[in-house]
Fold this sequence. Notes:
The complex is a heterodimer.
Chain A: E1 3-6, E2 11-14, E3 19-21, E4 23-26, E5 33-38, E6 44-50, E7 56-59, E8 62-65, E9 75-77, E10 86-94, E11 97-100, E12 104-109
Parallel strand pairs in A: 2-12
Antiparallel strand pairs in A: 1-4, 3-9, 5-6, 5-10, 7-8, 8-9, 10-11, 10-12
Chain B: E1 4-7, E2 10-13, E3 19-25, E4 31-38, E5 42-49, E6 56-57, E7 64-67, E8 73-78, E9 87-94, E10 104-105, E11 109-113
Parallel strand pairs in B: 2-11
Antiparallel strand pairs in B: 1-3, 3-8, 4-5, 4-9, 5-6, 7-8, 9-10, 9-11
Amino acid sequence: GDSVTQMEGPVTLSEEAFLTINCTYTATGYPSLFWYVQYPGEGLQLLLKATKADDKGSNKGFEATYRKETTSFHLEKGSVQVSDSAVYFCALQAGTALIFGKGTTLSVSS
Amino acid sequence: NAGVTQTPKFRVLKTGQSMTLLCAQDMNHEYMYWYRQDPGMGLRLIHYSVGEGTTAKGEVPDGYNVSRLKKQNFLLGLESAAPSQTSVYFCASSPHRDRDLEQYFGPGTRLTVT
């Protein structure tokens, strides 16, 4: 069945460091792909998305490109801030539902 | 717009007790979902609904029941709570789009079963 695999965390960075969180997927066809972010004590909120191959989603300095050749959707940010500390989830659309990865915790220190 | 709201925010139950979690959305979304979030497990889909009066099982439906009598509400019931149901429960809703199933999440309900 369809699945999403994310790099295990936690990821610990200093402020202004470069961030990459890896996400690969297994699916039939070319599903839409999403990154969600969860701040402490809150629900998930959409960070960015891509609905077809080679699309680049971007928001708040984060970017991810839909790579069908490598079945990947890695999340990147050039310079992280303390306020980016959160849990990040990669997800793919499977019919009328989303399948989520297990989440990657990012901790940024000043 | 309030978005997606969940009631209650916290609850402690004893084993064998029952309860209902309420989810409400004011965005006129067709689809609604219930997830549970456990450490190291990510989000797992319990049940979902693609329209008023319809429900379907997700990945982990055992021990839960749901109802969608009104389009804006989605109820999750636990008939006989067990410690394994201690978790954080999230409700989400989504408009009906073929290739863009962006989901909007509520703030969560933290349930402890002792």
